[in-house]
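hey so i finaly got around to running the thing on DUF7882 domain-containing protein from Microbacterium marinilacus. pasting the sequence first so u can double check i didnt mess up the copy paste, my clipboard has been acting weird all day
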Amino acid sequence: MGTLIYDSVEPPITIDDRTLSHLKVVILSKLRRGESFSVSWRHGDAPDAGRSTIWVNQSIPLRFIFDETEAPELNQAWLSALAQSANELGGIHLSPEEVGGGELTTPARA
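ok and heres what it spat out for the 3d tokens, dont ask me to read them lol
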């Protein structure tokens, strides 16, 4: 389970390493271009689990911490979908990765 340290928000945001690896690529790409955007996720699968949204901007410190020592192979289709959603009005909405029509991983739990 990876961790996203966002400014000084406590507790840190926990996200599985695979999802965090994909999210990192999209976030860094957007920030390199000087673009701000939001990232939203559900806290769990229960109907009343809640959700969170953060605003990502160059002026807000970010730190990506991974439990795994090796970076996973990235799913280009998922990266494209995340990057496209980052350009939309609602920003990135983390959802399970789909490979061949089936779910592979479950994203953030905060």
